Amino acid sequence: MHIAVAGNIGSGKTTLTKLLSKHYSWKAHYEDVDTNPYLNNFYEDMQRWSFNLQIYFLNSRFRQVVDIRKSGKDIIQDRTIYEDAYIFAPNLHSMGLMSTRDFENYSSLFELMSSFLQAPDLLIYLRASVPTLVRQIQKRGRDYENSIRLDYLKRLNERYEAWISTYNSGKLLIVDVDDINFSENPEELGDIINKVDANIHGLF
């Protein structure tokens, strides 16, 4: 079984991935942030490094999904390949931070890759307002995220909502992060687990 956790920067994807991995004894696949050679450069000069970063993520996540399907194990994945293609890359293009030539090249590559992919059995989307995202980003204190602008997070949120509103590739569970604190409240985590159970076992 392949479960994936989607959501904006700072929505709590990694935390929820860890907690669900521990609860269900699922193998966790995390975003490649610590060893990503482009992230620091990207936040310093988005226009110069946007294409390189997105290609790196596309390659990394495609490999992840191929490995997940090959493994035959129950896997939970922190962020999906779809978020790169439907949210981050088009957002960079619309902001003038990725050229049309690079964006079309990227989109063509994603289209080819996605024809070989199977969607997650369950997608968990963490919905969070910009103030919640900012609070959680500041809390974890990654240096390269200090320069993220509010309008950038707002644009990403709008794209997430547009993508989720038309998502029909598999089962979908939406969690409103503004109203809960699943990382510190076991009852609220329990509510999410109950909903995951219901989706996995076909009650919804």
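Above is the first protein from milestone M3; the second protein from the same milestone is given next.
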Amino acid sequence: MAVETKSSQAAQDKMPMMRHLREMRDRVARSVIAMVITTALAFVFAEQILEILKAPAPHLELIAIELLENLTVTLKVSLAGGFVLAMPFLVYQLFAFVAPALTSKEKSYIYRIIPFIAIMFFIGVAFAYYIGLPPALNFLTTWMADVAEPQIRINDYVNFVTRLIISVGFVFETPVIIMFLARMGLVTPQWLAKRRKLWIVLAFVLAAFITPTIDPIVQTIIALPLIFLLELSILLARVVYKKRDEPTPEEA
């Protein structure tokens, strides 16, 4: 009888895990389908997207030195464009997957900030495209150009531009994420303020990684907004900060 009870209990314990795995499978499947749709849409307009990516450096004449390079670049651009288009839906799927483990209040906060996550991402993309890219590309393409005329491969150009745009887009999520953590009581404004100097150093490290140039002006152009984002995060944390309480039975 005891053996049967243990077996029954084990089977009951496995059921939530199976539901959890099925939920993860469904969320991943929906995300993949969304990426396929948005990537296919971006593929239709791949040439126009490439023209947009090339616009910050109109003086460049990109070259392809491999037989499949243009096709490979088209696929990369389509995938990057599809990811940018699908990003809000992907974020929703991620939060929807973890939502069952949260309290009702935490769920409501998450669903409120999802639109702002998408908005900040697109603001970061716009900043990288209009503010960060032109000086970075100008420096990289004019450095010692009188000694050796640069001939830029289209694959290298697209890799650099898309990495910069998407990386900065993610970095611009910082205020929204920190605001949410502060509202949950997981970080405090005081804790963030004490690490201001560390963040300033990290901002320049990230700027050097995002724009791998030795030009301090280009790195500063990227680093300053990152520092501003931290200050904005501290301000928002002070507004929404709440000490973390144990969930009540009604919230659980």
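Note on the second protein: Residues 2-240 form one domain.
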